């Protein structure tokens, strides 16, 4: 029977995964090693394993298959063979709104609490609607791209011609269904950057001026560096990160975007860097800090499933230490932009409060940019001015 085939495929992929690699990378390797799986098998196995992790830590006492049947029901509007087999009473509710589906699960499984999906004691940042945030974890976020205002009509038209539902969210932002093979539709990679909606919105806090010298001190592969450059192409940039390989990707992305005038350096901000940086003074610093990533777990639900709360305190230590090491290179009157993709107050407002107490910084404004109503990530951003 086909359902047993589905069950076996799910159980095998679940057993193969230990949470160490990102799940999408693990699946690429797993499917390569399991060539007998056809495209339909791969699609179902991916759907099952992602849905399974979206249930986070809820109903942990149930056997994996029962949890999967519930999770797959909550995350999808069509019925899977496994849900139909294990949780048949759910069939008539599968296309209903999520609030109703949650209420239905609660009726069948009285121990089900939606808050148990994300059961951390650490508080959420100011302004987050906990219920809306939790429900958003059942939904895969969109793919967002940032484009030049002048290119937007052409790019949008091409995507529409390819039969893909595209939404125009601003003069420079388009939203597409996740999984869209954009590189096959818009073949010139210089015309767009993949960047989450909330991440794009942090740009409103940067306000660079022409010929300013900015430092993106946790640059990774350059998402924020490219954003600041698009806001002010005459900005001078130093991009650094502790990971050299990320800076290699950054360089490739910059060159692909036609940008050649930037510096990059491998710098560990937990060390004393006065030797390398003593003569540097910046007009602005972007500190997109390493964090729990809890605002992005809609994209990576495996992180939600495997996350252990003690790690929040470790990230906070790292965030404070990195901030301490960069503020001294900022000119007076100029901004430090502190950002995380976390929803935890400890990593956001509490780090900002610590910085305000410890350094001559003044808070201009801060915000938790909520992505959950737009099928996007959530990000925190604060603009602090050195006195
Ligand atoms: C949230 S990511 C940055 C994302 C990036 N700004 C973007 O927009 O794509 C945080 C980065 O901090 C870097 N990082 C972690 N510890 C660091 C350290 N001790 N010194 C410098 N960078 C560090 C990580 O390698 C990671 O690339």
Automatic annotation (TrEMBL):
A Pfam family annotated for this UniProt entry: Methyltr_RsmB-F
Database matches in PANTHER family: NOL1_NOP2_SUN FAMILY PROTEIN _ ANTITERMINATION NUSB DOMAIN-CONTAINING PROTEIN, NOP2 YEAST -RELATED NOL1/NOP2/FMU SUN DOMAIN-CONTAINING
GO biological process: methylation
Residues that coordinate or bind S-adenosyl-L-methionine: 241, 268, 288
Family: Belongs to the class I-like SAM-binding methyltransferase superfamily. RsmB/NOP family.
Keyword annotations of the record: Methyltransferase, RNA-binding, S-adenosyl-L-methionine, Transferase
Active site positions, chain numbering: 341
Highest taxon in the source lineage: Bacteria
The keyword Aminoacyl-tRNA synthetase belongs to this UniProt entry's keyword annotation: no
Keyword S-adenosyl-L-methionine included in the entry's annotation: yes
Annotated GO MF terms: methyltransferase activity
Name under which the protein is recorded: RsmB/NOP family class I SAM-dependent RNA methyltransferase
SAM-dependent MTase RsmB/NOP-type domain span: 120-387
Species assigned in the record: Pedobacter ureilyticus
Signal peptide bounds: none
């Amino acid at each position: 029977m086909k359902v047993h085939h589905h069950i076996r495929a799910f159980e095998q992929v679940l057993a193969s995964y230990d949470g160490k690699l990102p799940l999408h990378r693990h699946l690429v390797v797993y499917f390569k090693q399991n060539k007998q799986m056809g495209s339909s098998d791969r699609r179902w196995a991916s759907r099952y394993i992602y849905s399974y992790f979206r249930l986070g830590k809820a109903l942990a006492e149930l056997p994996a298959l029962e949890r999967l049947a519930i999770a797959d029901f909550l995350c999808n509007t069509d019925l899977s063979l496994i849900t139909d087999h294990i949780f048949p009473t759910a069939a008539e509710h599968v296309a209903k709104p999520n609030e109703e589906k949650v209420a239905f699960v609660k009726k069948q499984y009285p121990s089900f609490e939606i808050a148990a999906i994300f059961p951390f004691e650490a508080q959420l940042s100011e302004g987050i609607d906990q219920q809306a945030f939790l429900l958003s974890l059942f939904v895969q976020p969109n793919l967002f791209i940032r484009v030049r205002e002048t290119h937007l009509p052409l790019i949008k038209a091409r995507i529409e011609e390819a039969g893909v539902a595209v939404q125009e969210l601003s003069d420079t932002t388009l939203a597409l269904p996740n999984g869209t093979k954009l590189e096959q539709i818009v073949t010139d990679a210089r015309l767009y950057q993949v960047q989450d909606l909330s991440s794009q919105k942090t740009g409103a806090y940067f306000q660079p001026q022409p010929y300013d010298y900015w430092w993106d001190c946790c640059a990774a592969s350059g998402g924020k560096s490219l954003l600041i450059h698009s806001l002010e192409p005459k900005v001078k940039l130093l991009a650094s990160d502790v990971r050299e390989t990320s800076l290699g990707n950054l360089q490739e992305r910059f060159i692909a975007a036609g940008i050649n005038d930037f510096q990059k350096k491998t710098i560990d901000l937990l060390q004393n860097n006065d030797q390398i940086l003593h003569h540097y003074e910046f007009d602005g610093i972007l500190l997109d800090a390493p964090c729990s990533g809890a605002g992005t777990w809609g994209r990576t639900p495996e992180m939600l499933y495997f996350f252990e709360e003690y790690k929040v305190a470790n990230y906070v230590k790292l965030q404070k230490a990195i901030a301490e090491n960069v503020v001294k290179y900022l000119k007076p009157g100029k901004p430090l932009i502190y950002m995380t993709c976390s929803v935890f107050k400890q990593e956001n407002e509490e780090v900002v409060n610590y910085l305000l107490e410890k350094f001559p910084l003044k808070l201009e404004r801060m915000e938790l940019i909520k992505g959950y109503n737009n099928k996007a990530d959530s990000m925190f951003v604060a603009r602090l001015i050195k006195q």
